[in-house]
Automatic annotation (TrEMBL):
Listed GO MF terms: acyltransferase activity, transferring groups other than amino-acyl groups
Occurrences of domain N-acetyltransferase (ranges): 13-164
One Pfam family it belongs to: Acetyltransf_3
Alphabetical list of InterPro entries matching this protein: Acyl_CoA_acyltransferase, Class_I_gatase-like, DJ-1/PfpI, GNAT_dom, INH-QAR
Protein name: GNAT family N-acetyltransferase
Organism per entry: Clostridium paridis
């Protein structure tokens, strides 16, 4: 797996830039009558056209287009999602989504668009996404993603969503943040992340993030202190955000692995720091992912998850999974989650506060 193929994970699917050989699937997708019916009909995509398409849409790209295949959690390609025609002055682009006919009505399309919008708004820097369609989207589809109809003309409907609207959708529900404690856990890694969530609650004047400490009855920390978690692993709390902090002894605790296995799929994010990255590697959730890792842990991580790619970075964000080597990068990873949920404007006070206290 090449390190420069972008990937972003969701609960049902993930999107990833394809390798050149994977254009064979695109060829199959575009000639599938069930898939292409109603959107212009089948399109023949011979191999002699692959190179031009790949260079424009995938790599190196012309800077105006972005293309991914959509994969289900069994790593089977189920469709495509992209944006094209980006106007850098107006920061506007148009999107495309195709889910193969036999995989429709499973929620794949909605989540693939959400993942694309997260990349477009939060990483690429776009402000508005638009699309024209001959068929009207369902009200449920529109409301769940935040699109609005801005024009109906000559049988075509134009949809639009702004960055502000997309961010606002995440603010409607409180998020359960569950931090896992275990014997030997690094207290600094716990305090870094928890204090940031606690501060943003104070700055916002409301408890957006509900904080829980998950673990056994009493936990011995790496510095010799003891702490009592607020809830056990069996507590009926469904985490939106799982924090897996670093420390010694995390691999030996099977309760941690069972907890992550149980809740990872339905969570929105998992943040693993320091040695905690070994635990999520043990659980198998970083297979075929680009991750950060401490130098001393890399061999063991690759033994547990050979298809993972370790980047020479202190912090890696692949959408749902965020890995950091610890320290300052743990702060960056936590702020990334907060930004994705609340938006940069709402975290401005927090960042200014951190900037002041660094001096």
């Amino acid at each position: 797996m090449e390190s420069n193929f972008y990937r972003r994970d969701g609960k049902l699917v993930y999107i990833k830039q394809p390798e050149f050989s994977e254009l064979k699937y695109v060829q199959t997708l575009w000639k599938d009558r069930e898939t292409m019916d109603g959107i212009g009909g089948i399109y023949h995509f011979p191999e002699e056209k692959w190179k031009v398409f790949y260079h424009k849409m995938v790599m190196p790209s012309d800077g105006k287009n972005f293309y991914c295949l959509v994969y289900n959690l069994d790593e089977v390609p189920v469709g495509e999602v992209s944006f094209h025609g980006y106007d850098s002055a107006a920061k506007i682009a148009r999107f495309n989504i195709k889910i193969q006919g036999k995989y429709r009505k499973r929620g794949y399309g909605r989540e693939a668009i959400r993942l694309l919008l997260e990349y477009y708004f939060f990483e690429f820097g776009g402000n508005i996404m638009m699309e024209k369609a001959k068929q009207e989207f369902s009200n449920e589809f529109i409301s769940s993603l935040g699109f609005e109809v801005i024009r109906k003309d000559k049988g075509e409907i134009t949809y639009q969503i702004s960055k502000e609207t997309f961010k606002a959708l995440s603010n409607n529900e409180k998020k359960n943040v569950c931090c896992i404690l275990y014997p030997g856990v690094d207290l600094l890694e716990v305090s870094f992340t928890f204090e940031l969530f606690n501060l943003i609650n104070k700055f916002n004047g409301e408890e957006v993030f509900k904080l829980y400490v998950i673990g056994d009855d009493e936990v011995d920390l790496s510095n010799g202190m003891k702490i009592i978690p607020s809830h056990s692993y069996e507590a009926p709390i469904i985490p939106n955000i799982i924090i897996m902090p670093g420390g010694c002894g995390c691999l030996e605790n099977n309760k941690i692995s069972s907890y992550i296995d149980k809740f990872y799929k339905d969570s929105d994010y998992i943040l693993a720091t320091g040695h905690g990255i070994m635990t999520i590697a043990k659980c198998g959730i970083v297979k075929n992912h680009i991750i950060a890792a401490l130098e001393e842990d890399r061999k063991q991580i690759l033994n547990m998850s050979p298809s993972s790619k370790i980047a020479e970075l202190s912090y890696v964000d692949t959408g749902k999974i965020i890995t950091t080597v610890g320290g300052k990068s743990s702060i960056e990873g936590t702020l990334k989650i907060i930004d994705n949920i609340l938006g940069n404007e709402k975290t401005k006070d927090l960042k200014e506060y951190l900037s002041i206290h660094k001096k």
